[in-house]
Amino acid sequence: MGNGTSIGRVRGLGSSHQGTHHWLSTRLTAVGNLVLIPFLMISLALMPTHDFATVHAWAAKPIPATALVLIMINTFQHARLGVQVMLEDYIHEEGGKIAAWLFINILPIAGAAFGIVSVVRIALGGA
Amino acid sequence: MAQAPTKRPLSPHLQIWRWGPAMLVSILHRVTGNGLAFVGLGLLLWWVGALAGGAASYQTFLDWVWLAPAGGFQTVTALLGKVVLVGLTWAFFQHMATGIRHFVLDIGSGYELEANARWSSLTILFSVAATSLFWAFVLLR
Predict the structure, then answer these.
(1) Is A3 a domain residue?
(2) Fewer CB atoms < 10 Å away: N or C end of chain A?
(3) What is the pLDDT of residues B16-47, one digit of tens each?
């Protein structure tokens, strides 16, 4: 990136051509959350008690377990996209941008992986 | 920034404008979204991890977040846990309502000043009402 000619000042600062996919993916995962999170909240609210046996037995059933796995994928993807927009707005230094890029590309994947492994362990009868 | 320094005036910032419902729900959407991302998903992972770990680890989760049988510091965290759970419920309903508002704005509708202000205010009314109803159902039934 030069700073001499007017073309040199703007090179590399244009669109990355990935914005539409980001925008659409945010909406797509939002629709997923619109179904999945009320399912989780209503299921929890309707449980007679919230002791280990009741909650574990519920989470081990095929549909709740599937919903929980989908929640791990969908919420973490939606959160990743949203937090990325927030970080892009507030972080302006190059070092901070690299840290934010590492954070946004590693932590949501790790979190979702832990969540999925946990649900699979519940559903397949570990513990 | 690659642009040459300029003496041109900057646009006026937040404190200049008179706050309206649209401004409020716009920043609330960001705050609740990031709150749900960091606090909500963190708590979700603790919950599901504790559940996968077995009866003892799940009991530890319940004790620290809600029950506080040990008293002392646990009383503080359990009180905090209740505040956080109610807060997350509100944050979810608020983020959901403003998210649906964004869907409406995405199709190019709802930009008239009066309609925009009305639907913005309604998202707050909805989130408070839905949070109250949800917890009234959970705690009173």
Answers:
(1) no
(2) N
(3) 788 899 999 999 999 999 999 999 999 999 99
Residue with structure tokens 């073309």? Answer: A7
Inspect the interface and report whether the beta carbons of B96 and A13 lie closer than 8 Å. Answer: no
Work out the pLDDT band at A16, boundaries 50, 70, 90.
confident
In this complex, the residue of A37, A82, A118 whose CB is nearest that of residue B34 is A82
| Selected residues 48-77 of chain A with any CB under 8 Å from a CB in chain B | 50-53, 55-56, 59, 68, 71-72, 75-76
* Residue in B with minimal Cα distance to A92: B1
Dihedral over alpha carbons B33, A65, B62, B95 (to 10 degrees): 20
Q: Tell me the ipTM for this assembly.
A: 0.90
**How many Å apart are CA A51 and CA B62, to the nearest integer?**
8
Report CB contact under 8 Å: B99, A34. yes
Q: Please check whether residue A13 lies inside any domain of the structure.
A: no
Tens of pLDDT along A56-73? 999 999 999 999 999 999
Residue A41 lies in a domain: yes
- Give me the residue spans of the domains in chain B: 25-140
The encoded tokens of residue A120 equal 């699979």
Domain tally for chain A?
A: 1
Residue-range definition of the domain harbouring residue A34: 19-123
pLDDT of residue A116: 98
What pTM value is reported for the model?
Answer: 0.90
Phi, psi angle pair for B24, to nearest 5°: -65, -50
Range B25-140: architecture per CATH: Up-down Bundle (1.20)
Is residue A69 in some structural domain? yes
- The answer to whether B91 touches A82, Cβ cutoff 8 Å, is no
